[in-house]
Amino acid sequence: MKILRQSDFSEITDLSISDTNSRFGASLVITPTKQLLVGSPRYKGNAGIERGALFLYDDVGRGGATMKLESPYGRKLGLFSQSLAGNGALVVAASPRSSPPNGGEAAGAVHIFRNSNSNRNR
C-alpha cells in the first residue's frame, strides 16, 4: 500500500454557489460515470424558500453545474439532498424533514430521479 502525502494532490477547482447559508456540499457523491452530485439542503433559489437542491456536475474541471434539481414538494426546511446516492442512471435524494402532500408534518421522503441522458443500462 502506498501512502499519499498532501503534496501528492493538486486542487482542480473550487465549487460554490451564491446562495448563502445553503449548506452547499453537505452531501457529496461521485458516481461510477464520474459525475459529482453535491447536496445543498437549505438552498433557497429564486423562490426565497429553503427548499433544498442538488447539483450535478458532469465535468468538475470545467466549473458550472450541468443540472440542478430542487425539492419536488417545495416545502420549507425539508432538507432535500441532506443525503445522496447515485450511479449515473439514477439519483436518490433524501428529504428527512419533508412534508409530502400525502404524509404527515416532517414525515420525510426519498426522491428517486432517472437520468434520461445517461448512457448506462437501466
Key terms:
0% helix; 27% strand; mainly beta; four-stranded antiparallel β-sheet; three-stranded antiparallel β-sheet; 7 strands; 122 residues
Task: Give a structural overview.
The mean pLDDT is 82. A hairpin with a 5-residue loop joins β1 and β2 (36-40). The chain has no helices and 7 strands. It starts with 26 loop residues before the first strand and ends in an 8-residue tail after the last strand. By secondary structure, the chain is mainly β. The protein is 0% helix and 27% strand. It has one domain (22-114). The strands form 2 sheets. A 4-stranded antiparallel beta sheet has the order 1-2-3-4, with no helix packed on it. The chain has strands at 27-30, 36-40, 53-57, 67-70, 84-86, 90-95, 109-114. The chain is globular.
Short synopsis of the structure:
The chain is mostly beta strands and 122 residues long. It is built from no helices and 7 strands.
Provide the fold topology.
Blueprint: E1 27-30, E2 36-40, E3 53-57, E4 67-70, E5 84-86, E6 90-95, E7 109-114
Antiparallel strand pairs: 1-2, 2-3, 3-4, 5-6, 6-7
Low-confidence stretches: none
Main β sheet profile: 4 strands, antiparallel
Oligomerization state of this entry? single chain
Strand order of the largest sheet: 1-2-3-4
Number of domains: 1
Give the number of helices. Answer: 0
pLDDT averaged residue by residue: 82
Radius of gyration: 16 Å
- Please tally the β strands and state the result: 7
Strand content: 25-35%
Give the distance, in angstroms, between the N- and C-terminal Cα atoms.
Answer: 36 Å
| Order of H and E elements | EEEEEEE
Helical residue percent?
A: under 10%
User: What structural class should be given to the helix and strand makeup?
Assistant: mainly beta
- What spatial form do the alpha-carbon principal axes imply? globular
